[in-house]
Amino acid sequence: MKKLSLISLGILASLQFMDAQVISSKKWTDLFSYNNVLAMKEDNGKIIAATENGLFYYTVATGEVTKLSKANGLHDISITAFDYNPQTKVGVIGYANGSLDIITPQEIKYVVDIPIATGYSGSKSVNHISITGDQAVVSVGYGLSVFNLKKLEFGDSAFFMNGGVYEASNEATIFGNKVYSVTNSGLKSHEMNITFPVFSTWTTEIPGSFKHIDAEPSSMIFSSATSAFIYNNGTGTPLPAAFGNIKDIVLTASNIVVTDSRIYTFGLNGVSLNAVSLGEDCNTAITVNGKIYGGTILSGIKDEGSSTFKPSGPYANSAYKLNLYDNNQILVSSGSRLNRFNQPAINPKKPGFYYFNGSEWLRPSFFSTTTSPTNVLDAAFNPADNSEVFFTNYTTTAQGVYKMKYNAGTKDFDFVKRYDLGSPGDFSHRPVGFTTDAQNNLFVSFGFNYGSPSIGIYDRGTDDFIIKKFGLSSEAIQKPVYYENMLWIPIPRTNNFIVYDYKTAGNLSDDSDYILKDSNGFAGNSKGTLSVAFSKSGDAWIGTDSGLRILPNAVAEIKTPDPQVEPIIIEQGGLGEELFRDSQILQVEVDAGDYKWISVDGGGVYYLSSDGQKTIKHFTKENSPLPTNSVTDIKVDKKTGKVYFATFNGVVAYQGDVADVTSNFGDVVVYPNPVVYSNFKGKVTIKGLAEKTNIRIADAAGNVIHSAVARGGYYEWDLNNQKGTRVASGIYFVLMTNEDGSDKATAKIGVVN
After folding, report:
1. What is the pLDDT of residues 198-212, one digit of tens each?
2. pLDDT-derived band of residue 422, with 50, 70 and 90 as boundaries?
3. Residue 748 and residue 612: Cα distance in Å, rounded?
4. DSSP letters along 421-454, please?
5. How many alpha carbons lie under 13 Å from residue 296 in its C-beta half-sphere?
6. Rounded mean pLDDT of 384-395?
């Protein structure tokens, strides 16, 4: 038997799918949550579980857990439906945007052309998928469609109408020669391939509001919210249990499983067998070798002994900001803001923040027990005591900075203190983000602090914050950035930018602040500044609501009478054009080679040369594992070159080529090598270079066929010679020296055309 696993799916990165776009590679990893299990199927002792952003596979006998997501084969996130056929080894995933992934042991195909009813303007989300043989019935908000898994095309579709409006197929399945669908107005059926699309020819077998349905070759079950039935020639025989809110029903060749607040099992004749509670809410459940496994909302797969099984991942997928620390530690905050300053609807799951300690993900139990609303925009370690974590709660009733202490024994965080810093119930002084300086001082930014954006400076002696107000009226604020003993602070609601020279932290008598405005060169149509990062030469790269601006030699320039920010002008078709004109620049990050990562709201992430003149890479949700095209935070681990991207739909990481760049060479690596044209048609990457590297590439006869100067620690060769034509097959020698010739390196590249 060929198993559906990451081993058999490993070839998928090189295949072309229906959308002709390969979006995953070995350079990408996901940091998704696999807690919320939506559906499960079993195949020969392996449970396949569908979660919000991916599948995972749990082998019961060995305990092995593997995963499949957009980082290594899938084409989207926000999974809403899943089914799998153990006989054909084919699975189908349905997404919130109405698309499908068809998974076979050989490939994954992306289907985007699901039929849509004319005039329908509601949700395109896939409600349910049921596979029978080579047919998959796909239920949506306007009816259902049948997808042929052999031909990989849609067959019949039926658009349901009830009182002149479209009616959803909640779930549907094939039983015998008919398709059965449960809707809010009844259990409906239709013979296949006979005037199928005409809704008036569908039979309402049993009127009522029904939610779930499942079938095996010899029997079928269906349910409302509070009752489950065995189907019998147009009637339903109720199962003997008092249900409260049925989440799912599953029919196998040996039993019936109903998931409610408890998990009930019945024989195929309806006789009650068992009822167990797993101690938490489940979306679904199945039995394997007579043992119950629940698909939980918060803990992955859970068995009757309360053991849980899932891939490592955070509590939830919502992410806003992240902070990296030594020993591979990560803090991820889950909050959000509307228009970068308004309080959004509170996430009822209260995810709070997630902590990766280098080996596992943890989440404070505080967020599950507190009755107060939480909207955590940032979380940071106390630089003077790494057992303490501060977080900002950006709400209108429980706002404030909170402090927790890590308890290694319980692997939990104990609540220590809330710093309200204002009168009770006052929705001003909303804390946003943290930064620290070289002296281990902790700073936090406050928006609307009694009519002014402010900075709070943590005073360890008094265990309180000293407040510095900037005197700007009724403004929001972003997370500050520390650079050269000053805080650089974007202001997102009006076109201002603050630089705070605090000199001595906590002593407000000797500080200075500088404010950049429209007159300093920001675009007149910009509504605020959003982000800032610093190049190796000390230039401030400022992201605004309407483009990118550079403050050259920022520390010196900000202190001049009239500092001026400048756009980057690039040449397009012989004409000068402003880089990212009118774009919202959500985040700017600089890697070890002085290359720039730029997040554009709705436009994905750009990787630019050090001067911004060249786009090296452009990642979007369409061509990469990015969950969305609006990346709210970017962090680079400069030791490893790994780049982390935070989005409201999850965190992914990309293994960049630039790490620990110095004036000398590191470990020089060439890949791919050898270069076989039939397998790879891109550029050859050489990494581990010095900050400035002189490169000469020679053929076996010693003729120099290519030369270049590389900056930033790596170089990409397009396999062309000096004349611009591709080199012949053979061995090529790469001769490299650093800027002053004090360090040298060599490499070989094999080329097979």
Report:
1. 888 999 999 999 999
2. low
3. 31
4. -S-TT---SEEEEEEE-TT--EEEEEESSSSS-E
5. 24
6. 96
- Band (pLDDT 50/70/90 cuts) for residue 2 is very low
CB neighbour list of residue 238: distance below 8 Å, 6 or more residues apart: 227, 228, 229
The partner residues of 606 in beta bridges, in order of sequence, read 598, 618
Query: Contact, 401 vs 419, CB < 8 A?
Result: yes
CA distance 736 to 695: 5
Q: Are 311 and 360 in contact (CB under 8 A)?
A: no
What's the Cα-to-Cα distance from 340 to each of 24, 344, 476, rounded to whole Å?
Answer: 31, 10, 8
Residue 586 amino acid letter: L
Residue 452 — pLDDT band, cuts 50, 70, 90?
Answer: confident
Pairing of strands 675-676, 744-752: parallel
Nearest to 38 by CA among 246, 295, 303, 311: 295
Contacts for 420-423 with beta carbons within 8 Å, 24 or more apart?
Answer: 421/446, 421/449, 421/456, 421/465, 421/467, 422/449, 422/450
Helix (H, G, I), strand (E, B) or coil at 513: strand
In 3D space, the residue among 325, 345, 324 whose CA is nearest the CA of residue 335 turns out to be: 345
Enumerate residues 6+ apart whose C-beta is below 8 A from 731. Answer: 700, 748, 749, 750, 751
pTM of the model: 0.91
H/E segment holding residue 6 = helix 6-9
Q: Distance of CA 69 to CAs 196, 376, 405, 624, Å?
A: 35, 26, 34, 12
Burial letters 591-624, b for 16+ CB under 10 A, else e: bbbbbbbbbbbebbbbbbebbbeeeeeebbbeeb
> Strand runs (DSSP E) across 656-743, as ranges?
669-671, 675-676, 684-687, 692-698, 704-711, 714-717, 730-738
Distance CA 159, CA 180 (A): 14
Q: How high is the pLDDT of residue 1?
A: 27
Q: Would you say 52 and 36 are in contact if contact means Cβ atoms under 8 Å apart?
A: yes
- Average of per-residue pLDDT across 434-447: 96
Handedness of CA 228, 231, 232, 233 (dihedral sign): positive
What lies within 8 Å, CB to CB, of 725 at 6+ separation is none
Which two three-digit tokens encode residue 230?
């065995």
Strand ranges across the sheet with 529-534: 529-534, 540-544, 547-551
Q: Please report the sign of the dihedral spanned by the C-alpha atoms of residue 78, residue 372, residue 443, residue 422.
A: positive
Distance CA 353, CA 330 (A): 10
Backbone angles phi, psi at 439, to 5 degrees: -100, 15
Q: Pull the structure tokens for residue 542.
A: 């400022």
What residues contact 369, with CB distance under 8 A and at least 6 apart? none
**In sequence order, which residues have a C-beta less than 8 Å from that of residue 341 and are 6 or more positions away?**
447, 448, 476, 492, 493
Instruction: Give, in degrees to the nearest 5, the angle at Cα 98 between 261 and 21.
Output: 125
Three-state DSSP at 285 gives strand
Cβ(18)–Cβ(111) under 8 Å? yes
pLDDT at 24: 66
Between strands 165-166 and 301-303, the pairing is unpaired
Which residue's entry shows tokens 């490169």? 695
SS3 assignment, position 511: coil
